[in-house]
Design goal:
This protein is an all-alpha fold. It has ten helices and no strands. Helix content is 78%, strand content 0%. It is globular and about 40 Å long.
C-alpha cells in the first residue's frame, strides 16, 4: 500500500494514537527511561509520518509541568532527534503549531508564553532545530504575543 494510504489510515485512528503517545510520555516522566518509546517507534515505522504529533503532545504535557519534568521533556526531544531519527520538520511543525495558536493555548496554559521560548531555545542549543528557525520566526511574527515569544527565545 502507498505511503498516502498508510497516513490516511493513521489519521483515522489519531485519537487512539494520541492516547498511546501520551501514555508513553507519562511513563517516561515517571520512570526516566526512553526504552519503551524507542521500541515503540522501532516497531511502528508506519508512524514516522506523524512523529510531529508525538513532539506536539510532549510539549503540551511539558507546558503544565514543573522545571524537572520540563527538563526531562527537553531531554526526550533531544533523543527523538539524535537517537530516534525524528526529522527536523517534526520539531518545526510542533513549535509552529503552538506559535500559530498562541492566543488559544494561552487561555488554558498562561505559562506558555514563558515556557515555549525555553523549549525552543533549548532545542536550538541541543542542535535539534537550526538557529535560522528562530531568525525566520522573528521575521514572520504577526502579533505582539508571537513577537514576545521570539524576544524571549533570543534572551
Amino acid at each position: 500500500s502507498s505511503h498516502y494510504s498508510k497516513t490516511l489510515t493513521l489519521m483515522e485512528g489519531i485519537s487512539e494514537i494520541k492516547d498511546w503517545y501520551k501514555d508513553l510520555i507519562q511513563n517516561y516522566l515517571y520512570s526516566g527511561s526512553t526504552e519503551d518509546i524507542k521500541s515503540y517507534f522501532e516497531n511502528h515505522e508506519s508512524h514516522i509520518p506523524i512523529c510531529h504529533f508525538f513532539v506536539w503532545w510532549a510539549l503540551e504535557i511539558g507546558f503544565d509541568r514543573e522545571m524537572n519534568d520540563r527538563e526531562m521533556i527537553s531531554q526526550l526531544i533531544k533523543k527523538c532527534y539524535h537517537e530516534f531519527m525524528f526529522s527536523y520538520a517534526d520539531f518545526a511543525f510542533a513549535f509552529d503549531h503552538f506559535i500559530e495558536n498562541l492566543d488559544e493555548y494561552s487561555i488554558d496554559v498562561p505559562k506558555i508564553v514563558e515556557v515555549l521560548p525555553l523549549f525552543i531555545a533549548r532545542s536550538v542549543y541541543d542542535q535539534v532545530i537550526n538557529p535560522s528557525y528562530v531568525l525566520f520566526g522573528e521575521s514572520f511574527s504577526k502579533d505582539d504575543n508571537q513577537i514576545e515569544i521570539w524576544d524571549r527565545v533570543a534572551a
